[in-house]
Amino acid sequence: MTSLSVRLAALVAIASVAACADHSVVRQGRVTRPAAPPSAMPNSESFRMCAAKLDAAKVRYQPLPNQDRGGGCATIDTIKLMDIGTPTANLGPMTCPLAAHFAAWARYAVRPAARLYLGSEVVRIETFGTYACRDVRGTGGTIAGKRSEHAQANAVDVAAFVLADGRRISLVDDWRGDGPSAQFLRVLHQSACKRFRTVLGPDYNAAHRDHFHLDMANAGSSGRSFCR
């Protein structure tokens, strides 16, 4: 191999090493970079205090990484509820205060009210979910530019309750009645208004005809909750 060939081979090797130092991968003309590392886990003082309350109440949960999801949506200081004593469907990320109030509401309001008004145990709570990167839903649809508390994982929508005897009590079917099922739901609405900052039900607007919207939105300087 000539001296020129040796130098060319060395330059090619150096270029190859430099390319490997950048972890980008070229596929079909596109550069694919590795996923960003996970965000830091919740570690604020308020989160630690909230988590201590969940621990004391023997609520099982899993802390979730903080994540800015873009577009005004984020999941900060959130957890995944694993066991609150009553199986609950569709729970995603929830801010810790929301999760703590929801667990307490299920334990101290939902279960006792079912025994008192319906003579049975609640074996399942059905929800429409928690986190959703979207705007507020008003009477005429979403309100553009006004993010829902769901966009911060600070809200949960409760749709129905399944009983040990097989009955299913739902907002869409039983709210308008006048029997024990309706009484049960109205008591839950009243109790929720004492625990959550905002409670919206079927009497608020058509968008909430089939669920309770429960959130922990900042009530502002007045400190008042919004219950409809």
From TrEMBL:
It holds the Pfam family Extensin-like_C. This is Extensin-like C-terminal domain-containing protein. Keywords: Signal. InterPro entries: Extensin-like_C. It comes from the Bacteria. Residues 49-228 form the Extensin-like C-terminal domain. Residues 1-21 form the signal peptide.
